[in-house]
Amino acid sequence: MSTNKNNLFSNLKFDFPAGLVVYLVALPLCLGVALASTGRPDLLFSGIISGVVGGIVVGFLSGSALGVSGPAAGLVVIVLTAIETLGSFEAFLLAVVIAGAIQLLAGFMNAGIIGYYFPSSVIKGMLAAIGITLILKEIPHAFGYDADFMGDEAFSQKDGQNTLTEVYNSIRYSSAGAIIISIVSLGLLLLFDKPFMKRIELFKFLPGALFVVLTGILLNTLFSNFYPEIAMGGEHLVQLPVASSASEFFSFFKTPDFSAFNRVEIYTVAVTLAIVASLESLLSVEATDKLDPYKRNTPANRELKAQGIGNMISGLIGGLPITQVIVRSSANIESGGRTKMGTVIHGSILLLSAIFIPKYLNYIPLASLAAILLLVGYKLSKFSLYKGMYKLGKEQFFPFIVTVIAILSTDLLKGIAIGMLVAIYFILRKNYKHSYHYKKEEYKDGDVITIVLSEEVTFLNKGSIGLTLDHLPENSKVIIDGTKSLNIDYDVLEIIQEFKEHSAPMKNISVETIGIDSVAAVGGH
Q1: What span is annotated as the signal peptide, if there is one (predicted)?
Q2: How confident is the model at residue 519 (pLDDT cuts 50, 70, 90)?
């Protein structure tokens, strides 16, 4: 096994099969997100464009070794609403370009630091929730019920259905052909996961997902010839636009309407896109780094710059907004990817296949691809993850499980926001309790009470410290020790000073402060 993770080409035997799997996962997701975002079949190729740009451009520019970017389901509602508000897809493309420029500027302004403030419990909750969402959302496709677009993540759908009713409907309106293909596909994937299969040279380079897709095509062809009543067609297969000529192919690419440059709504949409896309990317970066077996850290500011340039290029040639996407990133990791070449390879295959073999891609049953995503979902949300989080205690488990439930019942960003609120509550609660150490010892003239302040004492500790000072016994001696503190907020210094000058003399308490003045000087107070 190669240990040089930084050499992009020394790991091609790992990155190529991983890139191929990511391509198979990304293809239907790009098309599904495009259809849901625009509501127009003639704009399906916009999803492929953003997938290609996310793979090749962002892949090369990003500092993420395993992150994969492309069109995101989390932006569907924003994009659909924006196109309606702006009146044309071309005007919307201008907003995408401006959003990319805002992201690029944010990267230079070091705004990526926001990504470091997402608690681990929330990120792990996000991964678990996405895993469960994948399973629930792909069950209908595995059963041959394709009413919702592949790649949807939200609980409530535009058609009035939701994740649970879709599962119920899929059981009622299932297709025997799809179920057979799904079961065979899952069986093949589980077989390819066995250690003995990985020792066969051919299967080290060609992933199980490729054989699953080829098997799905073969089975559906057999159904068409011998059992037409269970054969699948139309919406149950990949539906990539097929150009009859070079000129028609190039017509799939659109350019922004620069005449809309002076419209206020363009900038409103651009700012919204920049904020939401940046948050989704930073969240995915944190999650991908946690899944990375080599535990590499992605430079968050560089990621914002890469996403910004990617969105500018995508908008200029007719693509949808881009973010880093955890589903594709986790597929890359689970398939053994090691460097960013896996991401670039997926984007390159996406481009080449759209040019040269779109007709043949449209033979792929969605049931085969659903099986691949079902296994990705299972690996993201294994029982061992819940068990491990539970063992860490309630301060980690509660934000984790609340994040999972919130994402499943709303959508990714709302769920993360709810999980963050719970995590912040526990952080504040812990901070409130552990801002200082209270030590009382016997002294010949009475009690000596030592209060040792922690490294960081903020305004959040104001209440607990003030309460402790108020309940100190009369006629005692108090030492407030700030020698270990790197910073003490003015609010806390003010409380200590007021206690020393006013409250303490009234209770005949002798107060000695150590290291407080020096900290105040450093803090500029």
Answers
A1: none
A2: very low
